[in-house]
Amino acid sequence: MRNPFRSEAEAFRLVWLSLVYFGLIVLAAAIAPWLGLVVFVVLTAVAVWLIRGGGREPPQRVHVESGAAEGERRILVIANETVAGAELRELIEQLSAGVREEILVICPALNSRLRHWASDEDPARAAAQGRLHASIARLADDGIRARGEIGDADPLQAIEDGLRTFGAEEIVISTHPPGRSHWLEQGVVERARERFDVPVHHVVVDLAAQPN
């Protein structure tokens, strides 16, 4: 998720479009109240469509260069708070069977829309750091060595950023079950498979069903 106020050009464009938006509504309402309502509905629908990605070209497929040495497999794992699940640990063991695994765990700095637009990311990064430490420690308890990074709030951007320095051969996306996962609602797994040219695995972890 990009912050529209991180550059003067983007902030100016947003202000200008907002003025046009309200100006057209006021002008139409001055002609006839019903016309103002129609213009409001149409412009709002267009704005929502654009915000949700309407009219954008699909992202270019990203080629991932493997950085693994001989006898080694690099696995990039992205999860918010589901890395402690047994399902994820079992998948990692399957993917690294017979080779020496090198694992990078990325925990996105999940943030509220208000804090994101205000560029207040410190609380989100602090929370992600806590989840990351707990995840690495839990994997270590199961004999799986991994290192971790805090990633962008957008999971796809977090994956792409991680791949720039960690040429993974496998990507694992860990989510909550359907109905409780925002990532599944947003189609993150399907979009990742379209975007990256390495295998993308999806594992569902129900922390509520995990033994203590």
A few lines on this structure:
Helices cover 48% and strands 15% of the residues.
Notes on the protein architecture:
The radius of gyration is 21 Å and the shape is elongated. Helix 1 runs antiparallel to helix 2 (33-51). It is 48% helix and 15% strand. It folds into two domains: 8-51; 72-209, HUPs (Rossmann fold, 3-Layer(aba) Sandwich). Helix 3 links the parallel strand 1 (72-78) and strand 2 (100-108). It has 212 residues and is α/β, with parallel strands linked by helices.
CA-atom Rg in angstroms: 21 Å
Q: In what order do the strands lie side by side in the largest sheet?
A: 3-2-1-4-5
What percent of residues adopt helix (DSSP H or I)?
40-55%
Uncertain stretches: 1-8, 112-120
Shape: elongated
Give the mean pLDDT.
80
* CATH topology group of the largest domain: Rossmann fold
Distance between the termini: 34 Å
Annotated CATH homologous superfamily of the largest domain: HUPs
Quaternary structure annotation: single chain
Characteristic key phrases:
disordered N terminus; 48% helix; 5-stranded parallel sheet; alpha/beta; 2 domains; 212 residues; 8 helices; Rossmann fold; elongated
